[in-house]
Amino acid sequence: MFGDIMGMMGKLKETQAKVEETKKRLDTVLIDEESNDGLIKITVTANREIKSIAIDNTLLEDKEQLEDYLIINLNKAIEKATKVNETEIAAVAKEGMPNIPGMDMFK
């Protein structure tokens, strides 16, 4: 029994390391979001860090419209990045879960 616990602990540490590696890799996964009319383009990482924002000059004439574009498109980019992030982390975590009786809800 003690060996089983030690084996599970080792597996959990290994999984934790894989999750950390995945988080680092997600810093390099870029998500692009563009407004329907192409007036604003946003790039974020899968870890939800904004990398770039490109704004068409026509939006600079209307502060309210620019703010609306930023809010809408930043939220879309963050939503996409969150989905990628959660999917990748969950896949690594699920793969490394030890077989603990009664804990098969994660499989």
From TrEMBL:
Q: Which organism is it from?
A: Patiriisocius hiemis
According to UniProt, the name of this protein is Nucleoid-associated protein RM538_03650
Quaternary structure, per UniProt, is: Homodimer.
Q: Has keyword Isomerase?
A: no
Give the record's keywords alphabetically: Cytoplasm, DNA-binding
PANTHER family, per database record: NUCLEOID-ASSOCIATED PROTEIN YBAB
What Gene3D superfamilies does the entry give?
Nucleoid-associated protein YbaB-like domain
Subcellular localization: Cytoplasm, Nucleoid
Primary location class: cytoplasm
Q: Which domain of life is it from?
A: Bacteria
Functionally, this protein is described as follows: Binds to DNA and alters its conformation. May be involved in regulation of gene expression, nucleoid organization and DNA protection.
Record InterPro entries: YbaB-like_sf, YbaB/EbfC
Homology family: Belongs to the YbaB/EbfC family.
